[in-house]
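*** Residues and shapes ***
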Amino acid sequence: MEWNNEKLDQAIKQFQDKASTDAEFRKLALENPSSAVKQVIGLDLPEGFKLQVVDNAGAHLTVVLPDLKGNEYELDETELQNVAGGYGMLLYVDDDGMPVYSKAKK
């Protein structure tokens, strides 16, 4: 068996159910979540998957940050030269409704 969304949902439900009724398992879940998951589902967590379990004691909020974005929104040297040189691109639709691109130097 391998992990998929259905298996993950099932694991979370079983994990929470067992942790709410079994004090020994709850302790294991807090100290070693990976072992607790394996005990409930019989699968190791995927490599690189990090699981954090916290006790429901008072207010607690975990914020998951998105992946760090690289410089994908910055122009590379060629793009900068095209913009600085006044290079443009036009887009129009032909009679068949197909897009047509036209490059024009300003």
User: Anything to note?
Assistant: Strands lie at 87-93, 99-105. The mean pLDDT is 79. DSSP finds four helices and two strands in the chain.
